[in-house]
Design the sequence.
């Protein structure tokens, strides 16, 4: 092997080494794509579990509706069922909209369009949950007391006030955890969508 052949071989090996050291755009896009699929699956899984729990809650309340004896308990039961039905419908819509996103087989334009619809739906649902978390303590506390303790809060309004105060401390923490979960996963998917837009 002469000097020119050695230089050519060395140059080819050096290029190959540099290519393996630095990931190219396609490899980076594949990594982001895998993370976005994983994030989308997490959201879909959470929505599926949430929908099942919501349907079980609706069934439990309807099955025990006879335990609700006065206007406060009945109003709390009906209000909670209505809110749970709305939540189940929203969860179903989120699940269906998210299932339409196929980051592996869809075109870039289709992914962007479907993701924007998905993100818009999640933002609408987020605004709705803020309202729900304000209303729910006023419904859940009398309903829970009537169904589990078989007592009415109309007999002891002081406990109702204590329960409301406790709910306004606990529910925002729960809401922030849920918000963090969705924000983190949506940001990962957004990163992929932004990359394919460019």
Sequence:
């Amino acid at each position: 092997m002469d000097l020119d052949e050695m230089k050519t071989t060395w140059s080819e090996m050096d290029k190959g080494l540099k290519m393996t050291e630095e990931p190219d755009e396609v490899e980076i896009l594949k990594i982001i794509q895998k993370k976005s699929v994983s994030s989308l699956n997490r959201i879909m899984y959470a929505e599926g579990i949430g929908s099942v729990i919501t349907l079980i809650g609706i069934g439990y309340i309807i099955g025990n509706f006879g335990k609700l004896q006065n206007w406060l308990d009945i109003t709390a039961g009906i209000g909670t069922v209505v809110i749970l039905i709305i939540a189940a419908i929203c969860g179903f819509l989120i699940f269906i909209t998210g299932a339409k996103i196929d980051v592996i087989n869809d075109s870039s334009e289709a992914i962007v369009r479907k993701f924007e619809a998905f993100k818009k739906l999640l933002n609408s649902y987020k605004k709705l949950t803020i309202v729900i978390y304000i209303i729910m303590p006023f419904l859940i506390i009398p309903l829970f007391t009537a169904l589990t303790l078989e007592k009415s809060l109309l007999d002891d309004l002081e406990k109702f006030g204590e329960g409301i105060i406790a709910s306004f401390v606990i529910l925002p923490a729960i809401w922030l955890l849920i918000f963090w979960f969705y924000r983190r996963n949506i940001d990962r998917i957004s990163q992929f969508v932004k990359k394919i837009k460019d």
